[in-house]
Specification:
about 110 residues; mainly alpha; 2 domains; three-stranded antiparallel sheet; 4 helices
Length: about 110
């Protein structure tokens, strides 16, 4: 994660139709017309998990975000279809992790 991210630090907790930080201060209130209370509460739980999810994505990216082996494998002439698919999937996952982090930190949308 980028140093100096401007979001409220976690952990966050879902309350009844709202999300609060560790001090009980409001972070978000996911209320929209036409949504029932169960859906609003489910959205609050998902929002409350955001700091931990971002941390997990950043950790996964730190470990797997540069699949050099996959790029090198794709350069081989004689590569099985299974190996090619695995290498391409690793690259796709790494790109998805990078994009999710950037979006969460206010980068590319």
């Amino acid at each position: 994660m980028r140093a100096g991210a401007k979001f409220t630090p976690g952990p966050w907790k879902a309350g009844r139709q709202r999300v609060v930080d560790a001090h009980g201060d409001g972070v978000a209130a996911p209320t929209w017309a036409g949504r029932d209370d169960d859906e609003i509460d489910a959205n609050a739980r998902l929002i409350a998990a955001a700091p931990e999810l971002l941390g997990a994505v950043a950790a996964a990216f730190a470990m797997y975000g540069n699949p050099r082996w996959a790029h090198e494998l794709l350069e081989l002439e004689h590569l099985s279809d299974d190996d090619r698919a695995e290498a391409e999937a690793a690259i796709t996952v790494a790109e998805g992790l990078r994009a999710a982090i950037a979006r969460a930190e206010g980068g590319a949308q």
